[in-house]
Design goal:
Distance between the termini: 25 Å
Largest sheet: 2 strands, antiparallel
Number of strands: 2
Strand content: under 5%
Shape: globular
Helix content: 40-55%
Strand order of the largest sheet: 1-2
Length: about 350
Amino acid sequence: MGNTATAPEPEPGPAAGPGPGQGQGPGPEHGHGHGPTRRPGPEAAPGPGPGSGPGADPGLYGPESVTWQCHGDPMMWIAGVRALYLQALHPRAVRGVMENSDFRRDAWGRLLRTADFVGTLTYGTSEAAERAGGRVRAIHRKLSATDPDTGERFPVDDPELLLWIHCAQIDSFLHVLRRSGVRLTAAQADRYVDENRVNARLVGLDPAGVPADTAGLAAYFERIRPELAAGPDAHSVDDFLRGPPVPALLVPGRNLLWRPLAGLAYGSLPGWAHQLYGRPAPAPRSITRRLRLTGRVLRSIPAGLRWKLPPGHILKAMRRMGPGSRPSPYTLRTSAAILDRPGRA
């Protein structure tokens, strides 16, 4: 991952210097002053609902956080697929998924549950986020899997596995957002990593042992890389993501829409991950251009339409907190001096 865990490799693109913002664990059901500036026009926030205003519960992050502003970006879906590719390179982590979930039969449901979990932690109330984390911890405590190399049984809530899942996910979110055009300063990127130690706590990790900035994240990947490999389970994930099963009538749509997006997620992985998987990717400069183009296209869809998709976490949060809480990467650019403060983790 180059000099930092979130920089594209080898071309830094928008992630270098000031520039362009938990849930998929090893278990089966992973469902985190001045407010942001409201943008005028058709994407304006809905009016405040009951309980909105200064006394409303901002949740674990709140509108002043980098996480709140970034997690409403549509490129988060591509970032989530990148995270799956990366997470599958840990033999124990991916074995935990294979033995304890219906990944192959219900991958779409799993992806939506993960998005729901991330949305709840980011935009839900503090109570809802804590409750979601408690459910995940309770599920993981009951599960174990077999090491594919040694045959040893291990718990899926092993802190080392949870840390890998967390770091792979946060790295993927930050990497794809920045590389696709979300202009985060270096301080905002560090704050994003720090803020998300909150969701590490919710899945059972001690935040003190979780990377708190991009340098710490890069150091973690350097340490863990010797343990990574693309075994049969990782290749099964790769095969599935390249061609997930769909009804016959939907195959043309899958080939037209899904495969390019999955290929883009794979291409955004670091070079060492491509080497482990054993198949090449387009040149980094080409991937960066495609990420930027895809980001522009997806962001051109009015946010008010995108956010109406179930389960609607962002619209619910805006009704709770008022129109000034509208997530937008523009807020990050105009409020860098406000946001570049120590995180809340």
